[in-house]
């Protein structure tokens, strides 16, 4: 069973519980953290040369369930489309690959997305980070698919600091760079030209905290934090490399390790923020990746064969866990 099916089933079971059981007093907040192109071997409990202590503590908490047989699709768009819709890629029209920059395609609008299903249950829904499910038509935009607001980028990849992507312009016969960083609400997209030089991992963390600061406490939230990390290009503030002293001989793996350290720091800060704002106890945190890592760009899927874009386990088996302080520990006795 794929990770997106696992997650969907989990959410449905929880929602059913809140609708039908007197033991469930409050609907939980849901924080979905999706890492881009994370290899199976790209966490420090598998490769001890890496530095991901905050993610490790979350993964091995007594309030966490790890999905040991979690599989996704081999590329970004198919997994994200399935995660949002609950349908396999051949039903969403995404089985052949990913949506490219300026491509007119999008996931069919007759397929309801997860936030659209959560809205009738009283959830406020937010998306921060990567979308990659179509944007050349207003009906494809995140706020048309159930999200109250969106801040991030629409396409497959861009620079971590300049937030720009390269697109081939047929009229002039060469590639040109264009900004892909937008704030979206009520179907209106506003470009953000003010964040040049701000590393996207830190930017998306700050935006997440800003959104939650303004979230009404009377409603539960579904927040989809779709990190750019650790997708290409290999870019990171240099001070994070101090966490990777054993990888200096491998330039790509060294930078990749530093990108993971930045991601881990952001995760730790987000958990601390949730605790400070007294949101942590009633928040279900789901951590996963959209596909395997690319070994040509510093990732590792050991011990599995292949990587991103392949259907071997290196491209499809991922690390997925669900952390829920108020819900998982309560049922721990069932496994004793």
UniProtKB/TrEMBL annotation:
What PROSITE patterns does the annotation carry? Answer: SULFATASE_2
Q: Is-annotated flag, keyword Transferase?
A: no
What GO annotations for molecular function exist for this entry?
metal ion binding; sulfuric ester hydrolase activity
Gene3D superfamilies recorded: Alkaline Phosphatase, subunit A
Required cofactor(s): Ca(2+)
Q: Where is the Sulfatase N-terminal domain?
A: 28-328
Query: Mind listing the UniProt keywords for this protein, alphabetically?
Result: Calcium, Glycoprotein, Hydrolase, Metal-binding, Signal
Q: Does the keyword Calcium apply?
A: yes
Query: Do you know which CDD domains this protein is assigned to?
Result: 4-S (cd16029)
Q: Name one Pfam family in it.
A: Sulfatase
Q: Any signal peptide, and if so, which residues? A: 1-24
The text of the family note is:
Belongs to the sulfatase family.
Q: Write down what this protein is called.
A: Sulfatase N-terminal domain-containing protein
- Species this chain originates from: Acrobeloides nanus
List the taxonomic lineage: Eukaryota, Metazoa, Ecdysozoa, Nematoda, Chromadorea
């Amino acid at each position: 069973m794929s990770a997106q099916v696992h997650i969907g089933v989990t959410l449905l079971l929880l929602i059913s519980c809140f609708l039908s059981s007197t033991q469930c007093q409050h609907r939980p907040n849901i924080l979905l953290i999706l890492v881009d192109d994370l290899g199976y071997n790209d966490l420090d409990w598998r490769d001890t040369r890496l530095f991901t202590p905050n993610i490790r503590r979350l993964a091995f908490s007594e309030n966490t369930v790890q999905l040991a047989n979690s599989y996704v699709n081999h590329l970004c768009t198919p997994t994200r489309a399935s995660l949002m819709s609950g349908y396999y890629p051949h039903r969403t029209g995404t089985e052949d690959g990913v949506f490219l920059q300026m491509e007119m395609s999008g996931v069919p609008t007759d397929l309801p997305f997860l936030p659209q299903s959560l809205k009738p249950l009283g959830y406020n829904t937010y998306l921060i980070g990567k979308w990659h499910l179509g944007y050349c038509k207003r009906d494809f935009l995140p706020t048309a698919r159930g999200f109250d607001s969106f801040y991030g980028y629409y396409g497959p990849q861009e620079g971590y600091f300049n937030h720009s992507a390269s697109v081939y312009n047929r009229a002039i016969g060469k590639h040109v760079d264009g900004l892909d960083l937008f704030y979206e609400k009520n179907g209106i997209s506003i470009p953000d030209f003010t964040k040049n030089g701000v590393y996207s991992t830190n930017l998306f963390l700050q935006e997440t905290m800003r959104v939650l600061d303004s979230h009404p406490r009377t409603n539960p939230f579904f927040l989809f934090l779709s990190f750019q990390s650790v997708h290409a290009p290999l870019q990171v503030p240099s001070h994070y490399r101090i966490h990777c002293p054993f990888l200096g001989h491998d330039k790509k793996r060294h930078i990749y390790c530093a990108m993971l350290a930045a991601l881990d720091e952001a995760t730790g800060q987000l958990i601390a923020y949730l605790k400070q704002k007294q949101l942590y106890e009633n928040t279900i945190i789901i951590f996963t990746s959209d596909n395997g890592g690319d070994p040509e760009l510093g990732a590792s899927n050991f011990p599995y064969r292949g990587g991103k874009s392949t259907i071997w386990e290196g491209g499809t088996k991922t690390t997925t866990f669900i952390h829920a302080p108020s819900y998982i520990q309560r049922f721990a006795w069932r496994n004793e």
